[in-house]
Write a structure and sequence with these properties.
Protein name: Oxygen-dependent coproporphyrinogen-III oxidase
Radius of gyration: 19 Å
Order of helices and strands: HEEEHEEEHHEEEHHHHHH
Keywords: Cytoplasm, Heme biosynthesis, Metal-binding, Oxidoreductase, Porphyrin biosynthesis
Distance between the termini: 35 Å
Oligomer: single chain
Number of strands: 9
Structural class: alpha+beta
Low-confidence stretches: none
Organism: Georgfuchsia toluolica
Family: Belongs to the aerobic coproporphyrinogen-III oxidase family.
Helix content: 40-55%
Mean pLDDT: 92
Strand order of the largest sheet: 1-2-3-4-5-6-9
Number of helices: 10
Pfam families: Coprogen_oxidas
Length: 293
């Protein structure tokens, strides 16, 4: 178990993603270094209204409750957690929000072998759906995981569909992607390799979609619907997201953790899209589990 290599990879991944996104947007990211990592944030960019790419490496005396909810036998252990997490909110409503993260946990107790696992994934949250974008996103995710087994993508796509689901709304957050956690099957190198495959393919998955949509004209109607749907994103992150809960419970930096929230959001009481509208099409054609590829 080479944790130094994992640390180096996550650090270099943050740099490569930030470099690609800054080149695409035309505005540099603000780099905010703190005790346990670096937050790279962009606000009011040419494409991104807000976005962040964070690297963190946190060490603690006791595993937070969010990390042991599914593995209670690890409660009370020391822990080491490191990874990269990103969320990007473009200004143009025809450009989807994207989220991705890759992470590694090590739980230790004196006199016992360390327990390690990896987690990660990426998912897409469109406001106006385009079938070719959804197909591209899911196909790239599938191809990234194909070297690790013919059944891996199907399992992690299903996990993503089930995880990024707002139970209180009975609706998906977006069109899914891939998600995995507690990964330690097949040995350290295989799990680390799969995690790298996810991290290394994010730019290939997301930027082609932005290139197609960033210059589409839009107006107040589209921005209004985007702000409404962003409310769902906020609800999921604050109510259900394990990464947000872990960060807050482990003494993480609140400013960095909550950079995932969009800058402009709206809520309405019992609102429904007009029948036959492009807004309704998001619900009928995209916000449901589908085999896109």
């Amino acid at each position: 178990m080479d944790t130094q290599s994992v640390h180096q990879y996550f650090s270099s991944l943050q740099e490569s993603i930030v470099s690609a996104l800054a080149t695409f947007d035309g505005k540099p990211f603000l780099r905010d270094r703190w005790e346990h990592g670096t937050a790279c944030v962009i606000e009011e960019g040419n494409c991104f209204e807000r976005g962040g790419v964070n690297f963190s490496h946190v060490i603690g005396e006791r595993m937070p409750a969010s990390a042991t909810a599914h593995r209670p036998e690890l409660a009370g252990r020391r822990f080491e957690a490191m990874g990269v997490s990103l969320v990007l909110h473009p200004r143009n409503p025809y450009c989807p929000t994207a989220h991705a993260n890759v992470r590694c946990f090590i739980a230790t107790r004196e006199g016992e072998d360390p327990v390690w696992w990896f987690g990660g994934g990426m998912d897409l949250t469109p406001y106006y759906g385009f079938e070719e974008d959804a197909v591209h996103f899911h196909r790239t995710c599938r191809d990234a995981l194909s070297p690790f087994g013919s059944d891996v993508h199907a399992r992690y796509k299903k996990w993503c569909d089930e995880y990024f689901f707002l139970k209180h709304r009975n609706e998906p957050r977006g069109i899914g992607g891939i998600f995995f956690d507690d990964l330690n099957e097949g040995g350290f190198e295989r799990c680390f390799g799969m995690t790298r495959a996810v991290g290394d393919n994010f730019i290939n998955t997301y930027l082609p979609i932005l290139q197609r949509r960033r210059d589409l004209p839009y107006g107040d109607r589209e921005r209004d619907f985007q702000a409404y749907r962003r409310g769902r994103y906020v609800e999921f992150n604050l109510v259900f997201d394990r990464g947000t809960l872990f960060g807050l419970q482990s003494g993480g930096r609140t400013e960095s953790i909550l950079m995932s929230l969009p800058p402009i959001v709206k809520w309405r009481y019992d609102w429904h899209p007009e029948p036959g509208s492009t807004e309704e099409k998001l619900y009928t054609d995209f916000l449901r589990p589908r085999d896109w590829v």
